[in-house]
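Feature request disguised as a bug: please show the residue count (290) next to Bifunctional spore maturation protein, fused SpmA/SpmB in the output. Example input:
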Amino acid sequence: MCAAERHETTVFSCTYHSYNSFSTCRFPSSAPRRYHPRFLWGTYPMLNGLWLGFFVVATISALVQWLVGGNAGIFAAMVESIFAMAKLSVEVMVLLFGTLTLWLGFLRIAEKAGIVDWLAKVLGPLFLRLMPEVPPGHPALGLITLNFAANALGLDNAATPIGLKAMRSLQELNPSKTAASNAQILFLVLNASSLTLLPVTIFMYRAQQGAPDPTLVFLPILLATSVSTIVGLLSVAFMQRLRLWDPVVLAYLIPGALLLGTFMAFLGTLSAAALAGLSSILGNLTLFGL
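Example output, currently without the count:
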């Protein structure tokens, strides 16, 4: 997006890049080059300040270890760590690219096969009561379902653009351009709590770091995200005064709560070794089954 910025008598045109924190400017040959503070600090001062803080804190910590602790090798260790982390980031990126490609392909197959549309129809009555301002059949409902499906598979990188499209679609129904609607707030909370049935990305990270059993965290993540989703939904329902005692809503919530409570009660009877074995078996079976 091009804009004209005026600084005293100097006029120049600038292009702001939305994907990072720099701007490119074209100055007339006769105009003195006076930089606006925004160009020096960037378009996103909070993020720039955060990154600058990382480097400042690291430098101060290294100086303290050198001057106070007498650790003369701290700077060599920092340089070595920079190159090691650069190598690790590339390795993680390559493995993440392959993992996302595989599971996004499965998600695309499910979408083409009509599974996502079927899920939208199944969850449609629930969404219509939790988000009453969204009319039936609105495209936002399909995007919300697709976002939840990506989150359920642990594809958080893929769920982000889908969630942005869903928020943009919900914004079309929002009468206010400066405040989030109730539907947007509820969607944001449920998206953040993110019920995760199969944390594929976490499995990938653990496998890349050499974990002997990457799926061992399946049960803890499943229980934690289930509880966080329920708490998030109840909190938003209380603030927005949603009718959770509606028979349709109860038809969705009660079976899920009973199933989760029964499962947690069963897990409470198992030893630590049995829990680890069960988590590994369920994680691998779910991964293989999908």
